[in-house]
Design brief:
Blueprint: H1 6-30, H2 37-64, H3 75-96, H4 107-121, H5 137-143, H6 146-149, H7 153-177, H8 179-191, H9 193-196, H10 205-224, H11 228-248, H12 256-267, H13 271-299, H14 310-316, H15 326-333, H16 339-356, H17 358-373, H18 378-384, H19 398-419, H20 424-427, H21 432-445, H22 460-478
């Protein structure tokens, strides 16, 4: 009997870690109570994972037997229908909840909108928080639309990112598991409730929902193609996508490490590994360098993407729980009127706070993964509950919160039932490790900084693909006449 490959076992470790964190985080974040409930939540999570281990395969087989769940139409028809359905849902949300700054927009959305206008008008890239506090990725994207579409640019930005995310999710899913996986993943992403309600907001994370799967797709293609020249070109595209991710969300600055680790761990030190890593690095550097040069010209010293040391300062304070703290933000702003001095003081005072209260800071680091993956409702919150000057009323909208979190929990459970089964190590391809690295990366990137639910949004396409693979592969095992999934590339092939 042949043994499972170590890349497949590594993939199961990644997937199992995600399942454990997401399940416990969901319970902890949505069912509040005394500290005694933590043990109960841990027990429920362990039991759920154990059931997934023993019965997950049979449950998935039963689900795959529901024919309406699996694509039967041609890929073109299915993908087009998913896009049309997603657009229809978003148009409905736009009609019910039109974009109104400071009504269903928060301060971040307003600042990015203002900066996009300043870029178009040729004004200084500056806000009250500073000249390098807000990363430029989103304002640059919106500024490209403003001259032609004016006030409709915010909504159009969301529509464009949705359509591109649909296409690239389908393409990535098809490469990893066949056309059925791509179609079903695109459908999941099209109807993802929290993503649907992003259409009236101005989230930079919607760019990440596009950029992450683009980076993964091109990097996997770089390892798959025969010609080194084409591999280098694909890797440059992947690195450029990661670079623009960093310009959009500065915590993505270390994301290229995932690309390098994937190449080294999965393919070893080969010629193709060196080509892919170097080409991806070149693409990354080419994208982020102009903004770093701009920062150096403005501040006359090195500043990577933003002057965002306040995010570290906030979570380092002994009263912090690891999430955004309005009082800590005000204290950070009051440190100095000079942006560079304020940034340096925030780092030094934050480090001193960690030294003075190391156990408390460690406790916040341990809690952050559960904050990250515990809920999937914030875009709905901004549309329903957030109104400037009024108290939140979550009880009035419990149904829509239940639908959104319920959908998210269903995806988590489907993924859990797949990654915990013994069959997973025979189904998993080495390529899945790259998607898992991207999915888990925010846990490490935000361990020292503020963390929020929105930081997992870039992984939504990957979660959709994982859930689609779980159902499609279960259907293939349960039905002998089910379409086989095949791909000739070594990195796409199972153990």
């Amino acid at each position: 009997m042949r043994n499972a490959s170590w890349p497949a076992m590594l993939s199961q470790v990644f997937g199992g870690s995600f399942a454990a964190v997401a399940l416990f985080g969901f319970l902890w974040m949505n069912f509040t109570g005394s500290s005694g409930h933590v043990a109960a939540f841990a027990l429920v999570s362990v039991v759920t994972l154990a059931v997934a281990r023993w019965k997950g395969g049979s449950i998935l087989a039963e689900l795959s037997g529901i024919r309406c769940l699996l694509p039967t139409a041609s890929p073109t028809v299915w993908l087009s229908s998913a896009v049309v359905l997603g657009l229809a849902l978003r148009i409905l949300v736009m009609m019910l909840f039109p974009a109104i700054p400071m009504h269903n927009w928060n301060l971040d959305h307003v600042r990015y909108w203002d900066l996009a206008h300043k870029l178009v008008d040729g004004a200084d890239y500056d806000e009250p928080e500073g000249r390098a506090y807000w990363p430029p990725g989103l304002p640059l994207a919106v500024a490209a639309l403003l001259p032609l579409f004016g006030s409709a640019s915010a909504v159009l930005y969301n529509i464009i990112t949705f359509v591109i995310a649909q296409i690239i999710t389908f393409m990535l899913g098809r490469v990893l598991g066949g056309w059925r996986v791509g179609c079903l993943a695109a459908f999941f992403l099209a109807v993802w409730p929290n993503f649907v309600f992003a259409v009236t907001l101005l989230n930079k994370e919607c760019l990440l929902i596009v950029l992450w799967p683009v980076a993964a797709y091109f990097y996997l293609r770089a390892h798959e193609v025969l010609l080194d020249k084409k591999a280098g070109l694909f890797a440059v595209f992947a690195g450029a996508s990661v670079g623009y991710s960093a310009l959009t969300q500065p915590s993505m600055l270390l994301l290229p490490i995932c690309l390098a680790l994937f190449s080294i761990l999965i393919t070893g030190w080969r010629r193709r590994t060196c080509i892919c890593v170097l080409a991806a690095t070149c693409g990354f550097v080419a994208v982020v360098t102009p903004w770093m040069v701009r920062n150096y010209a403005v501040f006359h010293r090195f500043m990577p993407i933003t002057s965002g040391a306040g995010h570290f300062y906030m979570v380092a304070q002994p009263r912090s729980d690891g999430r955004f703290d309005a009082l800590g933000s005000k204290e950070w702003v009051a440190l100095s009127a000079d942006e560079v001095v304020r940034n340096e003081q925030a780092y030094s005072l934050g480090i001193q706070a960690v030294r003075d209260h190391p156990l408390h800071f460690l406790s916040t680091v341990l809690r952050k993964p559960f904050y990250l993956f515990g809920q999937d409702i914030k875009n709905i919150y901004w549309n329903f509950d957030h109104q400037d000057g009024k108290a939140d009323t979550p009880g009035k909208h419990v149904l829509i919160y239940f639908i959104s979190n319920g959908f998210y929990l269903a995806i988590i459970l489907i993924i859990s039932m797949w990654v915990m089964t013994k069959q997973y190590v025979w189904d998993a391809t080495p390529a899945l490790n790259l998607l898992w690295m991207f999915t888990l990366y925010p846990i490490f990137a935000h361990s020292l900084f503020e963390v929020a639910e929105r930081h997992h949004y870039g992984a939504l396409p990957f979660m959709a693909i994982f859930a689609a693979m779980a159902l499609v592969l279960a259907g293939r095992h349960a039905n002998a006449d089910f379409d086989e999934i095949a791909d000739g590339a070594e990195i796409m092939s199972t153990g």
